[in-house]
């Protein structure tokens, strides 16, 4: 049974990896059309990945520099391994992966794991742009985590569980059972905090296109860059799955997962196309206003 579940989990990883690349290409295409450009072909992410892993680099900055992309990739894979992708009605079903009681706490750690690993790795490179991107990213991530964590704790109090599977299970039976409608304060905090977690404009302070080149990724190339490309595709999908499971009732099939993750990711891309990038102080202040207030209200409502 464990071997079969591992096989399904690895198959799910393969599907998520490809869906992340395709979704990234689609939204880059949409962004290009909004700007009056043609944009990249849909297969470009795969070309970039195989081109990167086929290149060797002689740059060396220390062990942690090399482990940064590995940690980031591990964060995305960890989210996938311990979070149910598809609700099947069976806690040991083929697409529930290795979820367990209390897995929500581990999932929150994995969400942070990739960013911290990337910060330590890029920081060892010594490039001033990397240090700038890391400082901005960690400051903004702390502001994002506060309302997000409060909202998730509210959901855990609401359903009296830290099991992601049970939270999804409690939302079955129709859209009226989704957290979006049963706990709107928590849903609002998560939907707004999600904008910072996804990292698009106006919260793309880490990469800050046209300002600090490509942020912490400035010195990475070759296989390490390929790891980062894979990690980005997996993390974007798995963060969308996380928010889907928390707020939008999870998914009972792969087509439903693809549609919901596409729409969740599109929300962050749409906002990014409408609003220009914030300064770091504007970004942090923004998350300490409406999202934080909604998170606090969510805790108050379900604590009494």
Give a verbal description of the structure:
- With 304 residues, this protein is mainly alpha-helical.
- It has one domain.
- 70% of the residues lie in helices and 0% in strands.
- It has 12 helices and no strands.
- It has helices spanning 2-34, 44-53, 63-81, 103-125, 128-159, 164-170, 179-182, 184-198, 222-247, 254-274, 280-287, 290-303.
- Helix 3 runs antiparallel to helix 4.
- The model has no long low-confidence stretch (mean pLDDT 86).
Cα Rg: 19 Å
Number of strands: 0
Order of helices and strands, N to C?
A: HHHHHHHHHHHH
End-to-end span in angstroms?
42 Å
Shape: globular
What structural class do you assign from the helix and strand content?
mainly alpha
Number of helices: 12
Q: How many domains is the backbone divided into?
A: 1
Percent of residues in helices comes to 55-70%
What integer is the average pLDDT? 86
Question: Which consecutive residue ranges, at least 5 long each, have pLDDT under 50?
Answer: none
The fraction of residues assigned to DSSP E strands is under 5%
Main sheet specs: none
Q: How is the secondary structure organized here?
A:
Layout: H1 2-34, H2 44-53, H3 63-81, H4 103-125, H5 128-159, H6 164-170, H7 179-182, H8 184-198, H9 222-247, H10 254-274, H11 280-287, H12 290-303
Helix pairs in contact: 1-9, 1-10, 2-9, 3-4, 3-9, 4-5, 5-8, 5-11, 5-12, 8-9, 8-12, 9-10
């Amino acid at each position: 049974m464990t071997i079969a579940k591992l096989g399904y989990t690895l198959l799910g990883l393969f599907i998520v990896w490809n869906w992340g690349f395709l979704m990234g290409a689609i939204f880059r295409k949409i962004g290009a059309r909004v700007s009056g450009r043609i944009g990249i072909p849909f297969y470009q992410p795969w070309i970039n990945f195989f081109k990167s892993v086929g290149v060797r680099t002689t740059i060396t900055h220390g062990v942690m520099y090399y482990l940064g992309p590995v940690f980031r990739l591990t964060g995305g894979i960890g989210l996938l391994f311990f979070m149910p992708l598809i609700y099947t009605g069976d806690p040991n079903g083929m697409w529930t992966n290795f979820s367990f009681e209390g897995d929500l706490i581990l999932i929150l750690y994995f969400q942070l794991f990739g960013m911290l690993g990337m910060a330590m790795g890029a920081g060892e490179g010594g490039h001033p742009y990397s240090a700038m991107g890391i400082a901005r990213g960690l400051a903004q991530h702390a502001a994002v985590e506060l309302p997000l964590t409060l909202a998730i704790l509210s959901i855990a109090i609401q359903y009296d569980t830290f099991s992601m599977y049970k939270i999804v299970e409690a939302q079955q039976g129709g859209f009226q059972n989704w957290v979006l409608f049963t706990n709107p304060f928590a849903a609002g905090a998560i939907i707004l905090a999600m904008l910072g977690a996804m990292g698009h404009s106006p919260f793309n302070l880490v990469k800050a296109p046209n300002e600090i080149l490509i942020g912490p990724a400035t010195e990475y190339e070759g296989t390490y860059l390929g790891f980062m490309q894979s990690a980005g595709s997996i993390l974007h999908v798995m963060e969308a799955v996380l928010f889907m499971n928390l707020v939008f009732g999870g998914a009972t099939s792969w087509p439903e997962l693809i549609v919901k993750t596409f729409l969740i990711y599109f929300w962050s891309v749409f906002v990014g196309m409408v609003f220009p990038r914030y300064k770091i102080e504007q970004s942090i202040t923004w998350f300490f206003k409406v999202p934080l207030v909604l998170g606090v209200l969510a805790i108050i409502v379900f604590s009494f």
